[in-house]
Design a protein that fits this description.
156 residues, alpha+beta, 5-stranded antiparallel beta sheet, 4 helices, disordered N terminus
Length: 156
């Protein structure tokens, strides 16, 4: 198998800080250097988190458990008690801008909130899309969009 040609890095949008790219000092475990390819679903990478959601499209097993789905997508579970707790504890927070692939996206739609994963193109993967895990083309699919936090394996 021939190595892939490296592409020039994409320009980083102004609303994304260095902490978003390497959140070593934040509430996240850093993704090791060189972890740019997916090892598999739920492997702790943004690509793995997105693949986890793709593998679970149509599943109703996570209805009412959006935080569990978001954590399971990164290979963890039980870190945050709810999407609201995750939003409160995670940083840095971005109320605007297109969330990078694998970022956590949040809505204030219930006592527990709601969370999903960004697809990197302005859309999301989440539970409760048509009563199951699904994909929507906009973060505004749900009302009361809060914003996003960086893509990384969650921990407190």
């Amino acid at each position: 198998m021939a190595p892939l040609a490296s592409a020039a890095p994409a320009a980083i949008p102004a609303d994304i800080s260095a902490a978003d790219i390497n959140p070593a000092a934040g509430t996240f475990a850093t993704v090791p250097e060189g972890s740019v390819t997916i090892q598999g679903a739920a492997d702790g990478t943004p690509a793995g988190a997105i693949q986890w959601y793709k593998n679970h499209l149509g599943s109703t097993a996570y209805q009412g458990y959006c935080e569990k789905a978001a954590e399971n997508a990164y290979g963890t579970t039980g870190v945050w008690g709810s999407a609201n707790a995750h939003w409160t504890g995670a940083s840095p927070k971005h109320p605007t801008g297109t969330p990078p692939a694998g970022s956590f996206v949040y809505w204030n739609i219930s006592a527990y909130g709601h969370v999903g994963i960004a697809d990197g193109s302005g859309g999301i993967y989440a539970s409760s899309i048509g009563g199951k895990i699904g994909h929507a083309s906009s973060v505004n699919f749900f009302n009361a969009y809060r914003g996003w936090t960086p893509a990384a394996r969650p921990h407190q």
